[in-house]
């Protein structure tokens, strides 16, 4: 009970610090907000979520458990890291040094269109209309590349703000398609990245009125993120009764939502002293070698694969993973503290004088500071790997377009 009260007060001070900042949109604010959203069950002192349905959904089984005291320590140390950086290491916003390079954003869009075409070709028209879970088997790497290109194109467009919006058509088309297919990660994290580019990079100063507007927009965005899944699944099942959809939103949007599932897995991982094999770290890392699955024939490693059958054997679908639980299993509080150290350096040292690196930083920030809690700890390595491939692709496409541009210029002169 004491730790619960301390955590509630600590969270309140985190929110006060964010609100009172001259510019509340920054990586450190995102980090603090992430601890509060994914730490929601800590306010209640328990976590609960649906684990199964019986008799065509008439009977619902649920998981319910009081939270272990060690979870409060982990999140309180995250708050301590927040306050340390906010009060002692807060630096000025990065400088805008990028120039209006239309050829570069064209290169990004060319790569996006190619990947989107290959993804849709591999997916097939008919598979656009099947359920989200059925479609997973048809999702290829082209989808992941297209998602990154789409967000990078929007970030670059936001950074130098050209007069034309034509360059936004391909990425927006992809995002609309992404939401239609039932996915929200790219849209939500991409939106956060865009906010960082638009406001943190510009060092925007917010007055009281603007902060109130920002608060209302943030609350609406968070609510939309929570209620999206129950609404989507209700419509996917062709259930259009308003009363049913509202009941689904009330039952599954908050209590039992992703933070509660993630916290439940973390809670049981620590309580039941889950163990992994001695080669787990090595297996986690080597899977990111290019063509690993093709060469070895092995599927990718996920902490959730190791623990779900032990912790929640009755659940027939994949639960969210828990990076903090995974780190705790690997090395206890020592391993978790190594992640705190990495967070400190990521928040403390960012590209201040290179706008191109800033785009990559803003792209990665939501994955590291916010989305990290519901994934494996090594998930970010996979994101960096794909981002590196995309940067290489953009570089060579840009060089190719540069050559074509030069050839056309010489031809026109002749």
Summarize the biggest pleated sheet.
2 strands, antiparallel
Shape label: globular
Mean of all residue-level pLDDT scores: 81
* First-last Cα distance: 81 Å
What does this structure look like?
The structure is a single chain. This protein is 68% helix and 4% strand. It starts with a helix and ends with a helix. A hairpin with a 4-residue loop joins strand 1 and strand 2 (59-66). It is mainly α. It folds into 2 domains: 2-96 and 201-377, no CATH class; 102-199 and 393-413, no CATH class. The protein has a two-stranded antiparallel sheet with strand order 1-2.
Which keywords apply here?
globular; 2 domains; two-stranded antiparallel sheet; 68% helix; mainly alpha; 414 residues; 18 helices
Write the layout of secondary structure elements.
Elements (H helix, E strand, L loop, with lengths): L1 H19 L6 H12 L1 H5 L1 E9 L4 E8 L2 H20 L13 H22 L8 H4 L5 H20 L8 H12 L4 H16 L7 H29 L5 H11 L5 H14 L8 H7 L5 H5 L6 H9 L11 H26 L6 H15 L9 H35 L1
Antiparallel strand pairs: 1-2
Helix pairs in contact: 1-2, 1-4, 2-4, 2-17, 4-16, 5-7, 5-18, 7-8, 7-9, 7-17, 7-18, 9-17, 10-11, 12-16, 17-18
């Amino acid at each position: 009970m004491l730790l619960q009260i301390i955590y509630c007060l600590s969270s309140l001070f985190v929110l006060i610090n964010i609100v009172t900042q001259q510019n509340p949109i920054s990586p450190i604010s995102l980090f603090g907000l992430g601890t509060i959203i994914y730490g929601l069950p800590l306010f209640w002192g328990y976590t609960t979520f649906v684990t199964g349905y019986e008799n065509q959904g008439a009977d619902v089984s649920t998981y319910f458990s009081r939270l272990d005291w060690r979870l409060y320590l982990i999140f309180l140390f995250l708050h301590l890291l927040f306050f340390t950086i906010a009060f002692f290491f807060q630096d000025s916003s990065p400088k805008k040094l990028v120039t209006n390079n239309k050829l570069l954003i064209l290169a990004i869009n060319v790569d996006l269109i190619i990947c989107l075409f290959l993804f849709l070709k591999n997916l097939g028209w008919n598979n656009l209309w099947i359920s989200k879970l059925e479609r997973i088997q048809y999702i290829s790497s082209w989808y992941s590349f297209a998602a990154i290109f789409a967000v990078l194109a929007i970030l670059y467009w936001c950074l130098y703000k050209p007069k034309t919006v034509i360059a936004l058509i391909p990425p927006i088309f992809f995002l609309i398609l992404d939401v239609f297919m039932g996915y929200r990660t790219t849209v939500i994290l991409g939106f956060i990245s865009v906010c960082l580019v638009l406001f943190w990079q510009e060092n925007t100063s917010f007055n009281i009125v603007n902060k109130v507007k920002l608060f209302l927009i943030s609350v609406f965005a968070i609510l939309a993120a929570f209620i999206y899944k129950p609404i989507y699944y209700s419509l996917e099942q062709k259930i259009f009764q308003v009363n049913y959809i509202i009941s689904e939103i009330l039952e599954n949007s908050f209590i039992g939502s992703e933070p509660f599932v993630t916290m439940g897995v973390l809670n049981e991982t620590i309580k039941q002293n889950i163990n992994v094999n001695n080669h787990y770290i090595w297996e986690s890392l080597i899977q990111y070698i290019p063509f690993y699955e093709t060469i070895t024939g092995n599927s990718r490693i996920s902490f959730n694969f190791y623990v779900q059958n032990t912790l929640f054997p009755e659940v027939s679908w994949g639960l969210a993973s828990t990076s903090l639980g995974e780190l705790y299993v690997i090395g206890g509080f020592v391993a978790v503290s190594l992640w705190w150290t990495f967070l400190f350096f990521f928040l403390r040292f960012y590209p201040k004088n290179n706008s191109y690196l800033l785009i990559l930083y803003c792209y990665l920030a939501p994955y590291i500071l916010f989305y990290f809690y519901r994934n494996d700890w090594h998930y970010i390595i996979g994101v960096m790997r794909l981002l590196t491939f995309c940067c290489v692709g953009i570089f060579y496409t840009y060089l190719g377009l540069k050559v074509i541009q030069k050839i056309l210029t010489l031809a026109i002169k002749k």
